[in-house]
Design a protein that fits this description.
alpha/beta, seven-stranded mixed sheet, 15 helices, 27% strand, globular, disordered N terminus
Length: 402
Amino acid sequence: MHAPTDDDLSDPVSVFHRLLTDEGQALLAKLRSYDPGRELAVATRLRRDHPAELVSAAIAQARLRQRAAAKFGADDAARMYFTPDGVEQATRASVAAYRAGRFAALGVRSLADLCCGNGGDAVALARAGIEVLAVDRSPLACAVARANAGALGLSDLIEVRCADVTEVDTAGFDAVFADPARRGGRGRIFDPEAYSPPLSWAVEAARRAPLAALKVAPGIPHEAVPDGAAAEWISDGGDVKEAVLWFGAASREAPRIRATLLPGPRTLDSAGLPDPPSGPVGRYLYEPDGAVIRAHLVAEVAELVGGRLIDPTIAYVTSGEHRPTPYATAYEITDTLPFNVKRLKALLRERGVGTLTVKKRGSAVEPEELRRKVKPSGPHSATVFLTRVAGAPTMLLGHPLR
């Protein structure tokens, strides 16, 4: 390898390629147990023997790998490479694996991954046995995606191409997956037409493919779901991660609206039920999973548990019997009280509640503010719901059922 020049070390792609050399790999190995609290001392020591820009890049990569572990797992994250935007926008590995498995089950053997970023989805697809053309217009993102394919032994299945996705011919591929950038220089983008590329272009590209999936923000309004598409909201461990619009063969094999919960997967399909009735709080309260709520499938949960809403505008279901369901967390309710901080504080003190979980829906009170006011203390635990019942501010006290 030639000695680095100033030009080499001022170009992000050149600096990244230096990380792939023996010198760069040695630096990354030294930073495997990177401690952010000792960054200055470590950087000073390493710069005695290595170019400052390369040391900075290695430290930044070590920092990104630590952040990425939550999405990719410690083993993969320690071998992979990332950009800051790539970590922020990457699909969680469990979600990507689920989607790749669905593509494979539908018979997909080749796929164009548009807006591939750091290549996380391409990795999942390749691990499912699918040949992937991964496309991004960022030279740095492409260099990172290519390095990740090599680091994980998937280069034979992943071809990375640096290009404008709007100019890529996807004819001949079994499927298309598109993940338009939803973040810009000022943060998260909420207008779908401000995505890069715009959502309207991605929808048309998906419609031209035999089978396609388009990743969108989970907050997409139902009325914005295009005609002919099936919408799937996905949560992982109770956290809503994304929505996916399926087109072509994929949209025909499933209902128009679906919620999928990981791990599992557990899938709840729309039955087209009307809104459930509301009524008094029973012995049990059901808190639907976030993906179920986003998919507007609370009525389906109410039917599963034989329940009703506590308020026409609140997505809490109540019932007089306990019917376990994976689509909602069940709580046994011990007290239903009008909202009153002093009364809650006295009740918690009486019962020795020191660990208080505060949940809210339809209340302006912030959980941390309430905890400061009630000052829980004692050996027991409880959950309080700040919500509305028949339009009135209400506190529901109880505990989760396992």
